[in-house]
Specification:
Blueprint (H helix, E strand, L loop, with lengths): L7 H10 L16 H18 L7 E7 L12 E6 L6 E4 L2 E4 L13 E7 L8 H19 L10 H21 L6 H8 L7
Antiparallel strand pairs: 1-5, 2-5, 3-4
Helix pairs in contact: 1-2, 1-3, 2-3, 3-4
Amino acid sequence: MPTALTTKLEAVNIILATINEGPVASIPAAASDFYGTQAETTLDEVSKEVQLEGWHFNTEYEVEITPSGGAIAVPTDALKIDFHDPSVKGFQKGLFMYDSEDFSTTSWGSSAKKMDIVYYRAFTDLPEAANRYISIRAARVFASRYQSDGDTYSFTSIDERQARARLISAEGFTNEANILNVSPGAYAVKRGSPLRGY
């Protein structure tokens, strides 16, 4: 039985179809397949761009990170990170959190700090509404780069806006469905988090 989720291979082939290129049988595509490799690169690029906004499915709050040698290392899969407590003055500097009061990356002591983090998720770990929007947006970006002037795109700006609207609707549904799992105060923090992109 086929999965309900758009796979990465299906997304890449959706992208290739926008310029009438034949599908690839697997990913990663052969290095000699220029359009196949560029389609996957574009998909990954757009996926990161969309996820950077911070959605319910890739944002976690009050993640405890214990400093090592006074330094707070940023998780390698973090797209955005901030201290949960807004009174803590610091920001990401490279691979570590920078203390803007002590002007150091190694002054965080040894106790765990609560962080709000937007993570980068693999395409196969995203909900279908996100997969669909990312696929359509990536297809339009790809077509604008590799399609000749005058050709007709398979997806229009209306398709992209509708896909984004469905993603935002699904986001609202998921957030409301989970409101009973957190305290009202915590929910207010989540909804108003500076990590949110919209």
